[in-house]
Amino acid sequence: MLDATKQHTNPTRQTNLCILHNPQSGKQEAGASSEDLSRLFEQHGLTPEIVKLDPENDLAATVKQAVDKGYDTIVAAGGDGTICGVTQALVGTSCRMGILPCGTFNYFARSLGIPQDLDGAVKVIADGHARPLRVAMLNDRVFLNNANFGLYPHILRSREEIYDYWGRSRAAAYWSAIKVLFRWPRPLQMQITANGQTTTVRTPLAFVFNNAYQLREMGMEGAECIEDGKLALMLAPDCGRWGMILSSLAVLTGQATRKRHFDLICSDDIELRSTKGKRLLVARDGERSRMKGPFRLTLSDADLDVIVPADFGDAVR
Hints:
This protein is α+β, with helices and mostly antiparallel strands.
């Protein structure tokens, strides 16, 4: 979320910036090349260094190299996963972050009012209006939109397999969800501590949101949690395979309702423990990894200045 308690920084004309470009993000046939990006910035009198991200190289190390070169602004050109990874490495530095939305869903950029066309997004960066961003943390790892446990990380794994075969699209993303739902892995049994209370639940899916815009786009409750400076934890009921399929369809069509399709907990400090104590497949902004619990989800005290449209105002993203 953007921190409304902090004042805007004055607009700064960008002169010293580096673009970290993930050419694998989004729909390949519609993706912009590094040459395309260079031409767009040249129209604003800017000649940034453009670094193509290699999945074989450590992203944090690549970001650190850019910071060490003295760039004032680091631009993440990619999807939500790429932007999350760049944010992780930039928190605690003096660099500003710019966003070029090149992913499939682009929830983070859309929540900031950043244009989805690259011409418009480049102009936002050139204008240089920035706001402090308060990031969320899963243990020591940043997330911007959501962190999740259970079914969804398995859906992401299926999605990548489908993307490799059919290419990236929203239809492919939705099909990957349906495919995993019919397989239906065993629900998680988790101990949850929030707001001074501890409870044990059995759930196929735990979703922690840090993006009010994404919740509204999905037609779900919980945006008010984020507006109040908290995280929104959503737990799907353990209602069997067909019940989970129906609940998922309700979410996809914006018809999901609290109590019937999910339970909601608002808190700024949430701890999740798997009662079996095993490492879990976890996803942060679409990127998967196996992590050992307990899992503590909080809002960070460290801010990062993010370049946003001049008219974005004090909206909570």
